[in-house]
Amino acid sequence: MLKIENLTVKYGVIPAVHNANLEVREGQIVALLGANGAGKTTILKTIMGILKPAEGNIYYQGESINFFSPPQRVKMGITLVPEGRGIFNRLSVEENLFLGAYHRSDKEEVEKDLNRIYTLFPRLQERKEQIAGTLSGGEQQMLALGRGLMSRPLLILLDEPSLGLAPLLVRELYSFIANIRKEGVTILLVEQNATMALKVCDYVYLLETGVVKVQGIAEEVWSREDVKKVYLGG
User: Which residues contact 209 (CB under 8 A, 6 or more apart)?
Assistant: First the structure.
Protein backbone atom coordinates (compact mmCIF):
# COMPACT_ATOMS: atom_id res chain seq x y z
CA MET A 1 0.00 0.00 0.00
CA LEU A 2 2.75 2.46 1.00
CA LYS A 3 6.36 2.24 -0.08
CA ILE A 4 9.14 4.69 0.77
CA GLU A 5 12.37 4.49 -1.20
CA ASN A 6 15.65 6.20 -0.27
CA LEU A 7 13.90 9.02 1.56
CA THR A 8 15.98 11.95 2.79
CA VAL A 9 14.31 14.91 4.50
CA LYS A 10 16.20 18.00 5.65
CA TYR A 11 15.55 20.96 7.92
CA GLY A 12 17.68 23.53 6.15
CA VAL A 13 20.94 21.68 5.48
CA ILE A 14 20.54 19.27 8.39
CA PRO A 15 19.15 15.82 7.45
CA ALA A 16 16.38 14.67 9.80
CA VAL A 17 15.84 11.45 7.83
CA HIS A 18 18.57 9.87 5.72
CA ASN A 19 18.07 7.30 2.95
CA ALA A 20 15.11 5.58 4.66
CA ASN A 21 13.30 2.64 3.09
CA LEU A 22 9.97 1.49 4.53
CA GLU A 23 6.96 -0.49 3.42
CA VAL A 24 3.45 -0.77 4.83
CA ARG A 25 1.28 -3.52 3.40
CA GLU A 26 -2.49 -3.35 3.30
CA GLY A 27 -4.13 -4.47 6.53
CA GLN A 28 -0.97 -4.19 8.63
CA ILE A 29 -0.08 -2.22 11.71
CA VAL A 30 3.50 -1.04 11.23
CA ALA A 31 5.38 0.74 14.01
CA LEU A 32 8.12 3.37 13.76
CA LEU A 33 10.04 3.37 17.03
CA GLY A 34 12.96 5.40 18.32
CA ALA A 35 14.01 8.14 20.70
CA ASN A 36 13.04 11.80 20.44
CA GLY A 37 14.66 13.32 17.37
CA ALA A 38 15.00 9.99 15.58
CA GLY A 39 12.98 11.23 12.58
CA LYS A 40 9.70 9.42 13.21
CA THR A 41 7.37 12.42 13.06
CA THR A 42 9.34 13.81 10.11
CA ILE A 43 8.54 10.66 8.13
CA LEU A 44 4.82 10.94 8.90
CA LYS A 45 4.73 14.62 7.94
CA THR A 46 6.51 13.82 4.67
CA ILE A 47 4.05 11.02 3.86
CA MET A 48 1.24 13.53 4.50
CA GLY A 49 2.86 16.17 2.26
CA ILE A 50 3.48 18.68 5.06
CA LEU A 51 7.22 18.33 4.49
CA LYS A 52 8.92 17.79 1.14
CA PRO A 53 11.62 15.17 0.56
CA ALA A 54 15.09 16.31 -0.44
CA GLU A 55 15.60 12.93 -2.09
CA GLY A 56 13.68 9.72 -2.60
CA ASN A 57 10.14 8.73 -3.45
CA ILE A 58 6.89 7.95 -1.66
CA TYR A 59 4.52 5.55 -3.41
CA TYR A 60 0.92 5.03 -2.36
CA GLN A 61 -1.00 2.20 -4.01
CA GLY A 62 1.71 2.06 -6.66
CA GLU A 63 1.63 5.78 -7.54
CA SER A 64 4.26 8.37 -6.66
CA ILE A 65 2.69 11.06 -4.44
CA ASN A 66 5.77 13.28 -4.02
CA PHE A 67 4.06 16.25 -5.64
CA PHE A 68 0.57 15.78 -4.22
CA SER A 69 -0.72 18.34 -1.71
CA PRO A 70 -1.93 17.28 1.77
CA PRO A 71 -5.63 17.73 0.78
CA GLN A 72 -5.08 15.57 -2.30
CA ARG A 73 -3.54 12.87 -0.11
CA VAL A 74 -6.52 13.00 2.25
CA LYS A 75 -8.86 12.47 -0.71
CA MET A 76 -6.72 9.48 -1.76
CA GLY A 77 -7.29 7.90 1.65
CA ILE A 78 -4.35 8.99 3.84
CA THR A 79 -5.02 10.68 7.19
CA LEU A 80 -2.67 11.92 9.92
CA VAL A 81 -3.65 12.02 13.60
CA PRO A 82 -0.94 14.39 14.84
CA GLU A 83 1.07 14.34 18.03
CA GLY A 84 -0.69 16.46 20.64
CA ARG A 85 -4.11 15.51 19.15
CA GLY A 86 -4.68 18.86 17.40
CA ILE A 87 -8.35 19.08 18.26
CA PHE A 88 -10.29 22.35 18.03
CA ASN A 89 -10.66 23.18 21.71
CA ARG A 90 -13.50 25.70 21.37
CA LEU A 91 -15.70 23.53 19.19
CA SER A 92 -17.95 20.73 20.37
CA VAL A 93 -17.06 17.07 20.07
CA GLU A 94 -19.49 16.61 17.19
CA GLU A 95 -18.25 19.72 15.36
CA ASN A 96 -14.71 18.36 15.58
CA LEU A 97 -15.86 15.05 14.11
CA PHE A 98 -17.65 16.72 11.20
CA LEU A 99 -14.47 18.67 10.41
CA GLY A 100 -12.79 15.32 9.75
CA ALA A 101 -15.16 14.94 6.78
CA TYR A 102 -14.68 18.48 5.48
CA HIS A 103 -13.75 17.29 1.98
CA ARG A 104 -16.73 14.95 1.60
CA SER A 105 -20.05 15.78 -0.03
CA ASP A 106 -21.83 12.45 0.64
CA LYS A 107 -23.90 13.71 3.58
CA GLU A 108 -25.82 10.49 4.20
CA GLU A 109 -22.61 8.47 4.31
CA VAL A 110 -21.01 11.06 6.61
CA GLU A 111 -23.91 10.59 9.03
CA LYS A 112 -23.41 6.83 8.86
CA ASP A 113 -19.74 7.27 9.64
CA LEU A 114 -20.56 9.56 12.54
CA ASN A 115 -22.76 6.82 14.02
CA ARG A 116 -19.96 4.31 13.40
CA ILE A 117 -17.54 6.53 15.36
CA TYR A 118 -20.05 6.75 18.21
CA THR A 119 -20.30 2.96 18.23
CA LEU A 120 -16.50 2.66 18.32
CA PHE A 121 -16.13 5.39 20.97
CA PRO A 122 -19.35 5.48 23.05
CA ARG A 123 -17.94 8.17 25.33
CA LEU A 124 -17.82 10.59 22.41
CA GLN A 125 -21.54 10.14 21.85
CA GLU A 126 -22.19 10.81 25.54
CA ARG A 127 -20.21 14.05 25.23
CA LYS A 128 -21.09 15.06 21.66
CA GLU A 129 -22.33 18.55 22.71
CA GLN A 130 -19.44 19.12 25.13
CA ILE A 131 -16.69 21.61 24.28
CA ALA A 132 -13.70 19.54 23.16
CA GLY A 133 -11.19 21.47 25.26
CA THR A 134 -12.94 20.31 28.45
CA LEU A 135 -12.47 16.60 27.69
CA SER A 136 -9.94 14.47 29.53
CA GLY A 137 -6.70 13.56 27.79
CA GLY A 138 -7.94 10.10 26.92
CA GLU A 139 -11.22 11.43 25.55
CA GLN A 140 -9.35 14.01 23.46
CA GLN A 141 -7.26 11.22 21.95
CA MET A 142 -10.43 9.27 21.13
CA LEU A 143 -11.78 12.42 19.48
CA ALA A 144 -8.61 12.87 17.42
CA LEU A 145 -8.85 9.25 16.25
CA GLY A 146 -12.56 9.59 15.51
CA ARG A 147 -12.02 12.79 13.54
CA GLY A 148 -9.31 11.05 11.50
CA LEU A 149 -11.63 8.14 10.73
CA MET A 150 -14.36 10.53 9.52
CA SER A 151 -12.27 11.10 6.38
CA ARG A 152 -12.72 7.38 5.56
CA PRO A 153 -8.98 6.66 5.40
CA LEU A 154 -7.47 3.57 3.90
CA LEU A 155 -4.19 4.41 5.67
CA ILE A 156 -4.09 6.25 9.00
CA LEU A 157 -0.87 7.71 10.43
CA LEU A 158 -0.86 7.86 14.24
CA ASP A 159 1.77 10.07 15.86
CA GLU A 160 2.41 9.28 19.55
CA PRO A 161 -1.23 8.40 20.38
CA SER A 162 -0.41 7.30 23.95
CA LEU A 163 1.62 10.39 24.86
CA GLY A 164 0.64 11.74 28.28
CA LEU A 165 -1.97 9.06 29.01
CA ALA A 166 -2.16 6.94 32.16
CA PRO A 167 -1.33 3.22 31.71
CA LEU A 168 -4.97 2.14 31.98
CA LEU A 169 -5.98 4.59 29.25
CA VAL A 170 -3.06 3.46 27.07
CA ARG A 171 -4.37 -0.13 27.18
CA GLU A 172 -7.85 1.08 26.31
CA LEU A 173 -6.50 3.18 23.45
CA TYR A 174 -4.62 0.25 21.97
CA SER A 175 -7.77 -1.84 22.13
CA PHE A 176 -9.41 0.84 19.97
CA ILE A 177 -6.45 0.80 17.58
CA ALA A 178 -6.78 -2.97 17.17
CA ASN A 179 -10.50 -2.52 16.41
CA ILE A 180 -9.70 0.13 13.79
CA ARG A 181 -7.49 -2.39 12.00
CA LYS A 182 -10.32 -4.95 12.12
CA GLU A 183 -12.46 -2.44 10.21
CA GLY A 184 -9.98 -2.64 7.33
CA VAL A 185 -7.84 0.44 8.00
CA THR A 186 -4.08 0.09 7.59
CA ILE A 187 -2.06 1.81 10.34
CA LEU A 188 1.41 3.35 10.48
CA LEU A 189 2.14 4.04 14.13
CA VAL A 190 4.81 6.27 15.69
CA GLU A 191 5.35 5.52 19.38
CA GLN A 192 7.79 5.94 22.23
CA ASN A 193 5.84 3.34 24.22
CA ALA A 194 7.65 0.52 22.44
CA THR A 195 6.30 -2.23 24.68
CA MET A 196 2.68 -1.43 23.86
CA ALA A 197 3.31 -0.83 20.17
CA LEU A 198 5.10 -4.15 19.73
CA LYS A 199 2.12 -6.00 21.20
CA VAL A 200 -0.18 -4.89 18.38
CA CYS A 201 2.02 -4.26 15.34
CA ASP A 202 2.99 -6.73 12.63
CA TYR A 203 6.25 -5.15 11.53
CA VAL A 204 8.58 -2.62 13.13
CA TYR A 205 11.25 -0.14 12.05
CA LEU A 206 13.67 1.21 14.65
CA LEU A 207 15.14 4.62 13.84
CA GLU A 208 18.23 6.30 15.22
CA THR A 209 19.14 9.87 14.19
CA GLY A 210 17.15 9.60 10.98
CA VAL A 211 18.47 6.21 9.90
CA VAL A 212 16.62 2.87 9.94
CA LYS A 213 18.88 0.70 12.11
CA VAL A 214 16.69 -2.36 12.68
CA GLN A 215 13.61 -3.72 10.98
CA GLY A 216 11.67 -6.94 11.15
CA ILE A 217 8.60 -8.84 12.26
CA ALA A 218 7.53 -7.46 15.63
CA GLU A 219 7.81 -10.76 17.54
CA GLU A 220 11.34 -11.33 16.24
CA VAL A 221 12.48 -7.80 17.06
CA TRP A 222 10.95 -8.04 20.55
CA SER A 223 12.84 -11.29 21.21
CA ARG A 224 16.27 -9.80 20.47
CA GLU A 225 18.10 -8.93 23.68
CA ASP A 226 20.50 -6.56 21.93
CA VAL A 227 17.58 -4.58 20.52
CA LYS A 228 15.84 -4.46 23.90
CA LYS A 229 18.97 -3.15 25.57
CA VAL A 230 19.91 -0.51 23.03
CA TYR A 231 16.57 0.66 21.61
CA LEU A 232 13.75 -0.43 23.88
CA GLY A 233 15.05 0.41 27.33
CA GLY A 234 15.28 -3.23 28.32
Answer: 37, 38, 39
